[in-house]
Design a protein that fits this description.
Hypothetical Protein Ychn, Chain: A, alpha/beta, 135 residues, 5 helices, 34% helix, five-stranded parallel beta sheet
Length: 135
C-alpha cells in the first residue's frame, strides 16, 4: 500500500504560546497552508494562548480588533481560518498543564476546534522528523 501524500512530506508542529491575536492568527495561517499543501500539521496551544480555544476566546486576545480590518481588506479572518484548519485535518492540542494553571477545565474548550488535551511529549511526537515552530 502506498504512503499517503502527507506521509511523504515532513510534518509541521507549531507551539502557540503567545496570546496576541496576530500571533495566533498567523499560526493558523501556517497550519492551514501546510495542510493544504498535503503536510500533516499540529497546533499545540500552551501558555496563555489556551484561551483562544474557549468559545469566542479568540475575541478576548489582545489585538483581536484586527480581525475586522483583515476581513475588510479581503483577507481571511480568525473563524474562517479556524474552520479551514479543522476541515483540512489540522490536529489541535491544548496543553494539559496550562489548562490546569489557567483553571480552565477541558470541558470548556469550544468543540468546534476538536482539540485534544495532552502534554509536550504529544506535541513533540507530532512534529517528529519535521519542522517545529514556536510562536
Amino acid at each position: 500500500m502506498a504512503d499517503s501524500p502527507a506521509a511523504s512530506k515532513p510534518p509541521l508542529a507549531i507551539a502557540v504560546h503567545a496570546d496576541a491575536y496576530s500571533r495566533v492568527h498567523y499560526a493558523l495561517v501556517l497550519a492551514a497552508t501546510a495542510a493544504a499543501m498535503g503536510r500533516r500539521a499540529t497546533l499545540f496551544f500552551a501558555g496563555t494562548a489556551v484561551r483562544a480555544l474557549l468559545p469566542d476566546g479568540w475575541r478576548e486576545l489582545p489585538g483581536a480588533e484586527e480581525d475586522d480590518d483583515r476581513q475588510e481588506a479581503g483577507t481571511v479572518g480568525f473563524e474562517e481560518l479556524r474552520d479551514a484548519c479543522r476541515d483540512l485535518g489540522v490536529q489541535v492540542i491544548a496543553c494539559e498543564a496550562d489548562l490546569r494553571i489557567s483553571r480552565v477545565p477541558a470541558a470548556r474548550l469550544d468543540p468546534v476546534w476538536g482539540a485534544s488535551v495532552a502534554g509536550a511529549a504529544s506535541f513533540l511526537a507530532a512534529g517528529d522528523r519535521g519542522q517545529l515552530l514556536f510562536i
